[in-house]
Amino acid sequence: MIEPGMHINGVGGDCPGKTELHADVLRKGPVFCEFEPQSRIEGDMQQMPADFPVTELWQVLSGEVVGRSSADQVTIYDSVGFALEDYSALRYMRDVAAELKMTETISLIPTLANPKDLFGFLAKNRGAKRPLLAAVAVAA
Predict the structure, then answer these.
(1) Where are the domains of the chain?
(2) Would you say the pTM of this structure is higher than 0.70?
(3) Count of CA atoms in the C-beta half-sphere (13 A) of 122
(4) Quick one: fold of 7-103?
């Protein structure tokens, strides 16, 4: 399910004892976070050993650390909810994507024939050439 070059954003309401990503996912590539001490308590990396390597996002943005070392490297972002940093990261990625002409406008709220049938929309797009979730990830 995880393919070469994929980037995974682990974003959600984190708290001690709750994780969203399986530990094997975190082992697929370098893990980035907002603030390591908090992420080790509340983030997905709380399930990892204390010496599990992690890089704070500011280190990549400042050029201190390389974010992705090859096109096929899997990268993981373990977000624990620093809203200002999340917003800044999204704006930065949007601006870089625009510079590289890699943007695509998509609707985040689909037009549904039956608004009560959210799963029908996903099922309808299951065999699509470009899966719905991939389209959302590309737009982000």
Answers:
(1) 7-103, 105-140
(2) no
(3) 7
(4) Rossmann fold (3.40.50)
